[in-house]
Amino acid sequence: MIFKKDSITLGIILGMIAPVLGIVMFKIYKFGIFTYRETYDFMRLEPGHKTLSVALTLSLLLNALLFTIYINTAKDNSAKGIFISTVIYGMAVLLLKTFG
Q1: Diameter of the chain by CA atoms?
Q2: Partner of 78 for a Cys bridge, out of 11, 12, 37, 54, CB 3.0 to 4.6 A?
Q3: Per-residue confidence in pLDDT tens, the chain, 100 aa
Q4: Residue 60 in contact with residue 86, Cβ under 8 Å?
Q5: What is the Cα–Cα distance from 69 to 86, expressed in whole angstroms?
């Protein structure tokens, strides 16, 4: 099982995939009737990128969940990788909110 491994690389990979799944879940919940292309165009062209920054921020909650799981199971290297990915995504959201 994937939760039994302990490596920084695995953590980074999981930390990069989880927010993408979070954005997909946000799209399905908030923009269910629209296609992925229409949703992407709306988020990209919206002034201030408010919806995109909300989607990215909420999607980081999945990283928090993964981080908690790996910390509680004493898989510290994987937790470090997830934390690194979370910081990268967080900086991207911060830059989007600041300069977007």
Answers
A1: 43
A2: 11
A3: 666 788 999 999 999 999 999 999 999 999 999 999 999 899 889 888 888 888 888 888 999 999 999 999 989 999 999 999 999 998 988 888 888 7
A4: yes
A5: 15
Cα four-point dihedral sign 17, 20, 22, 25: negative
Residue 84 phi, psi (nearest 5): -60, -45
The burial of 1, by beta-carbon neighbours within 10 Å (0-12 exposed, 13-18 middle, 19 or more buried), is given as exposed
pTM of full prediction above 0.90 = no
- CA gap 55, 23 in Å, rounded: 6
DSSP letter, residue 6:
-
Helices 8-30 and 76-99, interaxial angle, to 10°? Answer: 50
| Helical packing angle, 36-45 and 50-72, nearest 10° | 110
Amino acid residing at 22: G
What pLDDT is attached to residue 2?
Answer: 64
